[in-house]
Design brief:
The protein is mostly beta strands and about 130 residues long. Helices cover about 5% and strands about 45% of the residues. The longest helix is centred in the middle third of the chain and has 8 residues. The protein is globular.
Length: about 130
């Protein structure tokens, strides 16, 4: 397949798939970068809902919020240093449907739209 020229030189990638296995959201991040790049798949947002992205920590298993979306045309998400640490420490990313403004409890709601493993891409040749 042809690579999209605008794709960043990513260090971390997570492909969040729906329960049906379809790609819902691909998240790319580069070390030292200040944003996440987002490539949306077949995800729809209800008019009275937002989407929220979460990181699940490898260290303590806690789920922490990364961002709230009102539309799936958002292709970049600014990242703070604490959020960066979340990504570097995450085993998975989750995308949930939440009420407008995101989850009031700071934990994911019942409706998980997509989930995926967060992978560190090695810059050197891959070891099998």
């Amino acid at each position: 397949g042809a690579r999209a020229p605008e794709a960043p030189n990513a260090d971390y990638v997570a492909v969040l798939t729906t329960e049906q296995g379809a790609p819902g959201l691909t998240v790319l991040a580069a070390v030292g970068g200040e944003e996440l790049w987002l490539k949306w798949g077949d995800i729809k947002i209800a008019p009275d809902k937002n989407l929220q992205l979460w990181a699940i920590s490898k260290t303590d298993g806690q789920i922490r919020p990364l961002g709230v979306f009102t539309a799936t045309d958002i292709t970049q998400l600014p990242l703070t240093v604490p959020q960066w640490r979340l990504i570097k420490d995450s085993s998975h990313l989750l995308l949930t449907e939440e009420d407008v403004g995101g989850s009031p409890l700071d934990e994911p709601g019942e409706t998980v739209l997509a989930k995926g493993v967060c992978v560190l891409l090695a810059k050197t040749e891959k070891t099998i």
